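Hi C.,

You asked whether I'd gotten around to modeling the 210-residue construct. I have! Everything is below, sequence then structure, no commentary in between.
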Amino acid sequence: MYLCMQAFAELLERLLLTPSRNGKLHLLKSYFTSAPDPDRGFALAALTGELDLKSIKPAAIRTLAEERMDPVLFAMSYDYVGDLADTVSLVWQGERGANRTPPLSEIVETLETATRAEAPRLVAGWLDGLDATGRWALLKLIMGGLRIGVSARMAKMALAEFGSVDITEIEEIWHGLAPPYESLFAWLEDRAEKPTPDIAAPFRPVMLAH
């Protein structure tokens, strides 16, 4: 189970370090091919900006970090690094004997039902069980704004390549789908019919309409 979260962390790191568009598409396609449901669906939601975990906010993450180290030192570190996820992942003082982190899907599903009082304790426990790259990926997942050079359009292009379909077919049904997109992946893998979202009219890309 730990490997599922670590695979997502490695994906984000490699996307960040890969400058070419084709290289990023290859990485995304490979991840969609190898990752299980529903992990890959929640990863897709994070990549396309469709994931919103309301139970924990950046201010709570900063408070967690300040509880583990001197607040002044943390403020200086944050000012130097300039990104909250980067800073916390590097300076986090983990506790010995921490349990391994659950898979990505379990993290998302747990935070979706957790209260704002419960969420910080859960996140602290997961941070304790991850290495620096895993902590960074977890915090990016929670706070959004991945900034890894991947747009929602690129993620959909990778899906189209993964399923050997035209990207317009995905865009037409996208707004009627919801994470973790299991029906979408089933269709792209020829295990089910194309999803038919319960919407009055399908989305038509502007260029297609033109």
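If it helps when you're writing up: Residues 138 and 192 are 31 Å apart (CA to CA).

Thanks,
B.
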